[in-house]
Amino acid sequence: MNSLQYKKRQLQLLASILRCSPAEIEFMCEHIESYYRKWVEQKKDKITGNVKTYPDGTPKTRVIRPSSGRLKEIQRSIRLNILSKILLPEVIQGGVKGKSNISNAKQHQGKKYQFVTDLQDFFPSVTPKQINCLFLNLGYSHYIAYWLTKLTSLEFQLPQGTSTSTAIANLVFWKTDQKLLALCLQYDIRYTHFVDDLSFSSSRDFREITVQFLDIVRSDGFKISYRKTAYSGKQTLTGIRVFNNYIDAPDKIKQKAKQEQTLPVEAPRPYSNYLNRIRMTNKRAIIDAKSWSKSGQLS
Length: 299
Description:
Elements: H1 3-18, H2 22-30, E1 39-42, E2 61-64, H3 69-81, H4 101-106, E3 113-120, H5 122-125, H6 128-137, H7 142-152, H8 165-186, E4 190-194, E5 197-202, H9 210-219, E6 223-232, E7 236-237, E8 240-242, E9 247-248, H10 251-260, H11 270-294
Antiparallel strand pairs: 1-2, 3-5, 3-6, 4-5, 7-8, 8-9
Helix pairs in contact: 6-7, 8-9, 10-11
């Protein structure tokens, strides 16, 4: 089989995986930019709701590039038939079915010392080269890795707003996750990764180790948002207040949930529902403890 025949066979293989035609893949790869929309939105603080600004008062923004039409369907197929089949470790809490910012924060309950940091421009920091290496490492040929990279990247970066981007970002960052975990194991530190938020906690003071975490992230080519980097005994982790025996919503959420109590019965109550989901994790912990106690396995 010559190289041209091999390329054709690989294209047919990818088309069968994605449930489309080989011609569609080739056409979309050649006209990829036409399948994207674009808008700019202002970044808002998760707690206050205020627009984030630079020191000079200029609002901070992010570029949203959602895919559309047939490419959106193909990306959904990539996510379902390729990316979602990869079992992710417990440390990754973002973009994983059954996981959320709530489950991420719950991992750190009961830890006295907490350290958080944020990956600045996380998605745009992921390059086509990293994406291509990811698919090669998953065992795909150079041809298939090339086509998958073209179908999931745009303008030399990972676009924010597509169904494949979070999964790809998680997998690309896993190499860095492993380095962070190795250091955490040395010092009995718990670590979780929720999209662009990194959370660390321990029962012992580990302030002197935090600079090593930042060095690891920077050495792998990612940028740190120092405004969102903090070491404290009490703080918010992925939008959740974490305490010794329970987790809770920040005051802003609780206030909005209280305001919803005055709404008509049939009106939606998103903040109340969110608050209940958070607090239910504390109730489940109590129920679990009682069930273990009845079975004689918990004193």
